[in-house]
Amino acid sequence: MFDADRNGGYSIKLKEAIFETRLHRLLRPKRHGGFGLGYGTLAEVARTVAQHMPGAWVTSFMSLHEGWVALLPPAGREEIFATDEFVADIFFPIGKAEIVPGGVRLSRQWNQGSGIDFCGWIGLGGHY
């Protein structure tokens, strides 16, 4: 039985393997310590990992999320990349966004997010 079957998530061993190999940095720009590779390379890496273990989806998600961080305005991008923590997301826009003085307030309740236990950041989807 896999850890994912036992506890509904992926293992610390997989998390550490992704971090040690820096596979989460495939799409991160080089100027931020990443590999600066494209989505085709990400797909090829995911296929290769999938031939050897069932954790390919986690490997690709962690890299994909960093690709989205690269699209943020500079201040947000710099803050997140400076921490070198994994980024999770629940992209489905079930949240409610409202413009408030100084920024945006996001509210509602989101469902469970894959890999969130090992992430220092989370991207949430919402609408206004």
UniProtKB/TrEMBL annotation:
Organism: Rugosibacter aromaticivorans
Protein name: Acyl-CoA dehydrogenase/oxidase N-terminal domain-containing protein
InterPro entries, A to Z: AcylCoA_DH/ox_N_sf, AcylCoA_DH/oxidase_NM_dom_sf
UniProt superkingdom: Bacteria
An MF annotation (GO) of this entry: oxidoreductase activity, acting on the CH-CH group of donors
Transmembrane segments: none
SUPFAM superfamilies referenced in this protein's UniProt entry, alphabetically: Acyl-CoA dehydrogenase NM domain-like
